[in-house]
Amino acid sequence: MTKTVTSRYDVAEHLRTPEEMAAYLEACLEEADGDAAFIAKALGDLARAKGMTQVARDAGLSRESLYKALSGERTPGFDTVLKVVGALGLKLRAETSRG
Prior knowledge:
- The protein is mainly alpha-helical.
- The protein has one domain (about 15-85).
- The protein is built from five helices and no strands.
- The chain has helices at about 20-30, 35-50, 50-60, 65-70, 80-85.
- It is globular.
């Protein structure tokens, strides 16, 4: 019997365009169910896809603090979230909830 070789899936390797990044963030926002750490981790995936150093620079944060904020182990402040979203070239928008 032949062994199957697998490798760890990294979503950041598959997020290449701004449209793909926006779709990924939108899907994560829908699935988060109020879990802010989940959204932080999703932003971390996007930052890794774009380049953590560049995102940190554009957001005005240190790379180390950006890694910590977006690890999914803590909830970053909303100001950090807004800075990162802007550095990613994305916008947050609101719409009515569908009930």
